[in-house]
Amino acid sequence: MGSPWLPQPSSFGGPADDAQREDPDSTLHLYRAAVRLRRAAGADGRPFWNERADPRLLDFTSGTLRCLVNASTDDVPLDAPGTPVLSSSPLPTSLRVLPPGTVIWHTGP
């Protein structure tokens, strides 16, 4: 591989593939798990956007998976989250709220 044409900040080294490959909690492993789930759920690449009253959440369904993304800086109340199968960060045990900056993939309603 050649040299980058622009200088790279030292902070870019952490997210590199070779640095994340051995870390089971890395973003690389999260994305790979999400891709496996999508394939197993029969997702065809065309998500169905679910209408939500709360604009802080992105809510879509693909195949048999539903994805909720809290794009805000606040906890967002959840109505019926289904059964989580993957999350981008640890979830509260009650799962009555989705923490800020968190994504969950779940099955069910």
Question: Your description of this structure?
Answer:
The protein is α+β, with helices and mostly antiparallel strands and 109 residues long. It is built from two helices and seven strands; from the N terminus they run ααβββββββ. Strands 1-2-3-7-5 form a five-stranded antiparallel sheet, with helices on one face. The radius of gyration is 16 Å and the shape is globular.
CA radius of gyration is 16 Å
* Helical segment count: 2
Largest sheet: 5 strands, antiparallel
**Into which percentage range does the β-strand content fall?**
25-35%
Query: For the terminal residues, how far apart are their CA atoms?
Result: 47 Å
Shape: globular
Judged by helices, strands and strand pairing, the structural class is alpha+beta
Give unreliable regions as ranges: none
Q: Could you give the order of strands across the largest sheet?
A: 1-2-3-7-5
Order of helices and strands: HHEEEEEEE
* Whole-number mean pLDDT: 80
Number of strands: 7
DSSP helix fraction: 10-25%
Architecture blueprint of SSEs:
Elements: H1 17-20, H2 27-40, E1 48-49, E2 57-62, E3 65-70, E4 76-77, E5 83-87, E6 97-98, E7 103-107
Antiparallel strand pairs: 1-2, 2-3, 3-7, 4-6, 5-7
Q: What's the short story on this structure?
A:
By secondary structure, this protein is of the alpha+beta class.
Key words describing this protein structure:
109 residues, alpha+beta, 5-stranded antiparallel sheet, 2 helices, globular
